[in-house]
Amino acid sequence: MITIVDAIKALDANAEFVMSGDPSDQAEYEANVKFVSGADENGTAIFKDTQDFTWAEVSAKKAELQTEYDNNQYQRDRASEYPSWQDQLDDIFHNGIDGWKTTIQAVKDKYPKE
Fold first, then answer.
1. pLDDT tens sequence across 53-106
2. At what angle do helices 73-81 and 55-71 cross, to 10 degrees?
3. 3-class SS of residue 66
4. Do residue 66 and residue 77 come from a single domain?
């Protein structure tokens, strides 16, 4: 599941912020997400008076990332069923490339790229 944190980090990998809760609308976002502008002499964070990104930008990025994540489910399904690389090398040694291809193709057929 994609989070608001994922969306903000996708918009700016270096963004520094704190967040309480899981904002689900503009009011919660503005109240619960604070971007850092620096630190005082004691190392305490100084927060900006404004947001680096609007709720519309963050929620759109979150939706985009969720769609991408959902569309790549087949990759996660395949990864969990592929043999380990050690087992794949053993398969190649004992059954040749064609035997290995058969093993891998069975997983690809079970979880096709859509």
1. 999 999 999 999 999 999 999 999 999 999 999 999 999 999 999 999 999 999
2. 40
3. helix
4. no
Same domain membership, residue 52 and residue 38:
yes
Q: Which two tokens stand for residue 46?
A: 């100084």
Structure tokens at 112: 């096709």
How many Cα atoms within 13 Å fall on the side-chain side of residue 103?
18
**3-class DSSP assignment, residue 18:** strand
The amino acid at residue 47 is: F
Question: Same domain for 90 and 66?
Answer: no
Confidence (pTM):
0.76
Question: pLDDT at position 44, please?
Answer: 95
Same domain, 64 and 78: no
Copy the structure tokens of residue 64: 């985009």
User: How far, in Å, CA of 51 to CA of 12, rounded?
Assistant: 13
**How many domains are there within the chain?**
2
